[in-house]
Amino acid sequence: xxxxxxxxxxxxxxxxxxxxxxxxxxxxxxxxxxxxxxxxxxxxxxxxxxxxxxxxxxxxxxxxxxxxxxxxxxxxxxxxxxxxxxxxxxxxxxxxxxxxxxxxxxxxxxxxxxxxxxxxxxxxxxxxxxxxxxxxxxxxxxxxxxxxxxxxxxxxxxxxxxxxxxxx
Length: 168
What we know:
Elements: E1 4-7, E2 21-23, E3 34-36, E4 43-49, E5 56-65, E6 71-72, E7 78-83, E8 88-90, E9 92-93, E10 102-103, E11 108-116, E12 127-133, E13 140-144, E14 160-166
Parallel strand pairs: 9-14
Antiparallel strand pairs: 1-13, 2-3, 4-5, 5-11, 6-10, 7-8, 7-12, 11-14, 12-13
């Protein structure tokens, strides 16, 4: 597991997280019931390398509901990559439709970062951290870039983030 640090700045996403709701339909809430979006403070967030092969990079970011009520993590998170030179770059959304992702206490959702791996040894990218803002939230979690993740081919604009989905 990766240690997380919470920050108040950066990655403003639509919605406040406090007053927004979604229709439940998966993950334990009654169909048709309104479920509040997960607050960053109720989520344990971790990142790990999950590359399927030597040419395709993938980082799985897991968000676990450590709160006492069911919540929704449906949608795209805000994601920035922070580099060794202390600059950050926003990551573009991949072509995927969000799925209803409702989390009971203790349940987890995963979102993925996908990119091509640079096997030349000459990648100009030096990522140090991943800044994640859960869907419909404004508070960001800072994660260390997984040490065993492959080098990024191209630029940070070549990385894509995919929406949350349950781990079941």
